[in-house]
């Protein structure tokens, strides 16, 4: 696994965790921010052929 792939997958995992915490805390604004970030990261991964797999968020 190259550095780009490892980095994007780590950022996705971190953002998923942050999204879960935002949902649990009831912070609707932060949920929107984290969801948008996650969508951007997943799109970027797809553009570069990085397999993200099933996610919980």
Defining key terms:
mainly alpha, 0% strand
How would you explain this protein's 3D organization?
The chain has 57 residues and is mainly α. Helix content is 75%, strand content 0%. The chain has 2 helices and no strands. The protein has helices spanning 3-25, 28-47. The longest helix has 23 residues, at 3-25. The model has no long low-confidence stretch (mean pLDDT 93).
Would you kindly provide a brief summary of this structure?
The chain is mainly alpha-helical. It has helices at 3-25, 28-47.
- Average residue-wise pLDDT: 93
What's the overall geometry? Answer: elongated
Largest sheet, described in full? none
According to DSSP, the number of beta strands is 0
Helix content: over 70%
Taking the alpha carbons of the first and last residues, their distance comes to 23 Å
Sheet-strand content, in percent, reads under 5%
As residue ranges, the low-confidence spans are none
Structural class: mainly alpha
């Amino acid at each position: 696994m190259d550095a780009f792939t490892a980095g994007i997958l780590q950022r996705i995992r971190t953002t998923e965790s942050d999204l879960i915490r935002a949902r649990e805390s009831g912070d609707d604004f932060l949920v929107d921010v984290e969801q948008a970030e996650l969508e951007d990261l997943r799109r970027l991964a797809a553009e570069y052929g990085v397999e993200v797999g099933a996610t919980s968020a």
